[in-house]
Amino acid sequence: MNESHSHFSDLSLLVHPRSIALIGASERPDSIGGRTFENLTAWSDFRGELYLVNPGYAEIHGRRCVPSIRRIEQAPDLAILAVRADAVLETLRECGEHGVKFAIVFTSGFGETGEAGRAIEAHMREIAASTGMRIYGPNCPGLNNMNARLGLCFSPAWRIDQRSGPIGVATQGGGLGRAFIQAMDRGVGIGLWCSGGNEVDLEVSDFIYYMAEAPDIKVIVTTLEGVRNGPRFMAAALHAARLGKPIVALKVGKSAYGAKAAQSHTAAIAGVAEINSAVFRELGIIEVDDIDEMIDVASLLSRAEPTGREQVAVYSFSGGTAALASDMIGLAGLTLTRFAPQTLQKLRDTLPGYAAIDNPVDVTAEVLVNAEVSHAALKATASDPNTDIVLVPIPVEYGRTTTLLGASLVDVQREVSTPIVPVWMSDRTGEGHRTIIEGGLMPMRAVGNAVLAVKRFIEYGRWRTRFDSAWVPLGAIASHAANMGLSEARTKALLAKIGIPVPNGCVARTADEAAQAWRDVANGRGVMKIASASITHKTDMGGVRLGIASEREAAEAFGDIHANGLRVCAASDIEGVLIEPMLPAPFVEVVVGIHQDPVFGHVCTFGLGGVGIELFGDVSRRLLPLTAQSARQMIEETRCHALLKGYRGQCAYDVDALVAVMVKLSDFVVRHADSVGELEINPLAVRPQGQGVVALDAILCHHGGEPAASQLPGGPFR
Amino acid sequence: MNESHSHFSDLSLLVHPRSIALIGASERPDSIGGRTFENLTAWSDFRGELYLVNPGYAEIHGRRCVPSIRRIEQAPDLAILAVRADAVLETLRECGEHGVKFAIVFTSGFGETGEAGRAIEAHMREIAASTGMRIYGPNCPGLNNMNARLGLCFSPAWRIDQRSGPIGVATQGGGLGRAFIQAMDRGVGIGLWCSGGNEVDLEVSDFIYYMAEAPDIKVIVTTLEGVRNGPRFMAAALHAARLGKPIVALKVGKSAYGAKAAQSHTAAIAGVAEINSAVFRELGIIEVDDIDEMIDVASLLSRAEPTGREQVAVYSFSGGTAALASDMIGLAGLTLTRFAPQTLQKLRDTLPGYAAIDNPVDVTAEVLVNAEVSHAALKATASDPNTDIVLVPIPVEYGRTTTLLGASLVDVQREVSTPIVPVWMSDRTGEGHRTIIEGGLMPMRAVGNAVLAVKRFIEYGRWRTRFDSAWVPLGAIASHAANMGLSEARTKALLAKIGIPVPNGCVARTADEAAQAWRDVANGRGVMKIASASITHKTDMGGVRLGIASEREAAEAFGDIHANGLRVCAASDIEGVLIEPMLPAPFVEVVVGIHQDPVFGHVCTFGLGGVGIELFGDVSRRLLPLTAQSARQMIEETRCHALLKGYRGQCAYDVDALVAVMVKLSDFVVRHADSVGELEINPLAVRPQGQGVVALDAILCHHGGEPAASQLPGGPFR
Predict the structure, then answer these.
(1) What ipTM is given for this predicted complex?
(2) pLDDT, tens digit, for every residue of B342-388?
(3) CB–CB of A427 and B396 under 8 A?
(4) Which end of chain B is more exposed for a tag (fewer CB within 10 A), N or C?
(5) Domains (ranges, CATH) in chain B?
């Protein structure tokens, strides 16, 4: 993946252009060109050269206007195109050929309208490729650089949406981006918003990469309808991870309805939601489900860096609200601080006897009207040595009481570094709410939202402590699906070759060979299974027999199985019947599978065989390559881990051997990434500790051409 | 439970008193008595007789004041006590003896402060019992009757919180109650708020029962920290269910932190969260997790009655937001309407080509500024014959655009009955937001919140179609835990007696008897288990042996098992060793257990044996008595139902026999409700369809005295 990693251009001159040409500049205040002119001149702090281009004007509001970009001697860093759709392609070509570095195209009416539009977009890409000019858009709201107070955009909202700050926003659609931006009214500061519309050239990944390096951005948020290029996206996310910048992502298209709507909106393919979420988790991307959740998580991350070990104190003036918050903290698996003795003493000295001082702190509404007591109690809570976050749920607007509370939150926050997180639960806002926002404390809107945000914050901190910054995902994307399969017998032979234990089996081609094979390998009780690359559900078609206890039984079973096989495929597709010894109990059956996701490349899936995965969806996933550590984490993430560890007095199973097999499988697929599309062991029997694992069934699918199957030995087969 | 059902007094004269005595009335505006006086006289429409009582005044603000309640000739319906804690008991006694019907006690300093306070509360209960006067409080905010504009309360917030409506609120703590009340600022109308503080007499159940009958209340919401009296609570909830009024409940204390905090706040015991939630579900109580969720669900229910078959349309001016909403609808398992052809035609005729007309509808922001088009498109969407709810997510405040949208929502809602549900996602409010609220549309605050509310709404509709209004839960509460157990053998004998199949086993007392028993019952392969009422985890202590294949093995196993038994209990506690035939595969092991919850009485639990319940928590629960229908629903609610139905080509199992056993078990426990504390079959083997079920292991725990064990036959035991 290192190669695509280097494909990110420096966007500094897009975000901070030294000179700008506004093509389609206009005097008409309601036109796109007129509104952009106003944003650039009246509502921005732009000190560079602004050129106006429009063949219809000689000057605009007293400024010189030229008919074409070619008339500007020194090509500007950035051209903004506010021109009609039919003029876009020619204008872009002129800009590119003239040496413009970046072009922003507001104009819509291209890919989103159908085939003809997509053809024009292909021409835009050609222009970008041939001239080196990078294109942002078309069909986009432009770029908002709040930290530099530079509005490369036409929306009249720009003049309002200017609360700068450390959050960078990279979106596909404009609507959800602006929904996030308006969190400014809650005090959330946003430094930069990039929204590349149809993304013919620059895309979300480019903006994430840029924001990862931008010194004024601490937290990156992104909304996605589909990841267009998985390896580039992963490279950008890893770049951010290595530079310590969290990414908060809202990915639309997890359900069939959402995927369809997203595709009709931005023509993005949503991808498989479970894989997408697993990849996000692995890359440390914090996935959220809604815009308000995104605001809460990002605002918290903009205030503090998590360690993953945070403990929470609750401070309220309502006992029921304090109980509700504590309850949610418990349900979320978070930890309420156990206050240090000096904290309890301070609270006891400060508050009356009927207040609750042990976390949660309930000072009661009567106490709150005494500003001095309120300040002292909150400060004691926030200064507790074990407290990392103070949650302050405020159930109601209570006039003077909540105004005093708001002021004390802001005052105490100036004196302590522990983040104080207010939750303004009421639909009634007022002076207290305003005080909190103006004090920079960005209130959340519901206890559940706040607890979820704190949970995500802490989980991200935990991920950081585990993150191996040297790790690079394989990212091998196939241009077509793997379409050739190996039979169980041949797959097992391959597994044996790479050091993964399989039963000592052999393939019989006749009833006599079956009887002989039973004697040779079955060890008293045998298993017989049809051997054919073209049959995948062997049990369903009568291709499996268990507990074969004699030569005669083996010979008979051969006949039955072979006959059943002929009912579903040609004789030439049947290699024979595989005979193996039955594995004695106890063992736990798990599944280890690797498949090639079309967006992100090879992904390993682990879970309990049978009901575990299929009924309960109890799986964990990782991108390849696996390490012993990541394989072990995969196992530990599932609920069936309890079973493997030795559940309720039963024996512990050989997790070390399981880990080793997962890594071997990963290593093999990494070596043959171009050909192996899928490799699954299902079930893999995990025997008691020290006794290893055995692959009871397995399948490999590969691409045509040079398959991994060329590695196959002729060895154990007759 | 019918008896406790009748214990609800008529609260009409508490909620609508014809005459009130304010005891502790005061001229001082900041005192409790003074504030209550102001609420009653300046901010209420009370037309009845108001008596003022205070020995310190002859008159207050020109009204006559008497020194004692005794001086009021005709006892008033209601006395409000705004007196010091040390005067409360005597005042209450005077009121009760004088014939007052209801007393509201604001005063705090009783049960919530400790033992001494609880002793005084016991005296209050005595007064209520001996005089018949019902007590509301102490330590409570009073009663707010918005629909009659009558503030029986001291809070200065009363004058603001007067948006009347069809929602009734019954809370334990005051803070969360008022948090809900302030949803009035979102346009939510609330008719009545009762909050009984320490609940020495009247409690949440009484208010729910009253609201169920009150003609001005359509929806009941309640916040609880603990259910004090399960049968009364269930009776009140059932009363509401039978009268068609939904209850929305927020129950604090689901986690250990929450339970501890709730107990320290209201001294309520939280109970077991899973049981509590199961009982709520069964009674049709809509359990929510947070106040904002409660507001959304209640406001939706106040607008429409669900059928359970609702389909949803999404209408937005942002493609990304429409996709997000559709995605969440899909993830929630809800159905997006497939528009009728005439709807699509109308939308096609109305909207430009680049708008999306197939649900979700994305009209785009440009279209929205044309009021006529916007109105027509929304009306077509809301008039679609298959659409039951229109969700309108509004991602941003867009000045004129969103004001027009708000107005068109309100206008169209006047013309169609399909509820239009706006979601105001932005932190920026404004004219559009105000328009929506004033038009009565109660905007929700996030797409996720709205989808969750719609889901709860529809689920409640489904519950209604299933609800059997004749059903009455058993509600047998034990005063102490069941402490006597029967051995497996004796429990199985009991099961056999009531018609539940058990293996044909017998108990051996010596090795010789074991060999003989093996010959008699084992049928080639036997199971041997220690028979002792005092051993519950037989496997862990070496008390179980499987696959016994000969008399000799049986005799040896007897020795081993018996010796292991002697290590954990006395010889006199060992009945012997149970010998049974091994059940041949295939079968599915499930668990059917009944236990006596201390709050709600006997509850049945069903789930997959082993990993299903313990690793994956895949269980369903019902109050006793079960019917064939409710037992079948229990099975269908679990994910393991897929296994029983015949999973991936495997055989289907005998669900009919399973249902029959569950009902038999329920019938037995109902007959012996006073003595049976717990009866669990674990595992119950469910064999292929037509082959029935077999109880492979079982245990019964009962109370001392007359246990169900008296039903035991001597029969199959030697």
Answers:
(1) 0.94
(2) 999 999 999 998 889 999 999 988 888 888 999 999 999 999 999 99
(3) no
(4) C
(5) 2-301 (3.40.50.720), 308-466 (3.40.50.261), 504-581 (3.30.1490.20), 588-711 (3.30.470.20)
